[in-house]
């Protein structure tokens, strides 16, 4: 039960994801920010993350750890052709209105009301177009998973951020997995992760939900992956990466869509190999 509580979505949002959000939104402890730039806007009410972030931010206005950031406006769309996401929008609009959030008719209208943006749209195919509109306004943005629905769009997003000189950040909350701080100064020779990764036909390979397992590999091993092989079955994908210094990483993606949606972090396991006969388990 203790492990379940540590992996609960609410715990992750409060203690893990916000470390990442701070990088993109510019929390004073992680970057410079004007005292008045506290208004947060959300693009996409087709994911539970939008409500979760709103609950955390607007429920902690007096908590100095959140530096006064609070959600004030949201543009609902968002997925339009992925039913599992689009069908949530009407209900999430009603729920987020309970927090006094303005619902806008366009991203442009949203940008006129906010200082920073959380791009939460579940459909990665829309991210490049939506992100560029935000970049042109000069406002900092956090892009939730998936970063995009193709490698081409993923690269284009960061190229556009550089062009418009706007900070952008994207990650799974597992980049800040509990226990990773204990690895400072340790030599990791290999990593083995398992995580849920349901497949969405509009998104190739592991783009839709595979980020959690993959993120932990790069958190542990850093950049430098030079080759990848993948074995695919109906219910499981096994992806093996080799790093340029001959370290290795293995990610098992479990395609159990119903179970994964209920307890996504509970199904995640991370084993780190620190040398012969030395294994560290984070989950």
From TrEMBL:
Q: Which cofactor does it need?
A: Zn(2+)
Q: Name one Pfam family in it.
A: GFO_IDH_MocA
Classify the source by domain of life.
Bacteria
Domain (Gfo/Idh/MocA-like oxidoreductase N-terminal) ranges: 39-169
Q: Which UniProt keywords apply?
A: Metal-binding, Zinc
Gene Ontology terms for molecular function: metal ion binding; nucleotide binding
Q: Which SUPFAM superfamilies match?
A: NAD(P)-binding Rossmann-fold domains
Which family, according to UniProt? Belongs to the peptidase M14 family.
Q: Which PANTHER family match?
A: BCDNA.GH03377, HYPOTHETICAL OXIDOREDUCTASE
| Name used for this protein in its record | Putative oxidoreductase
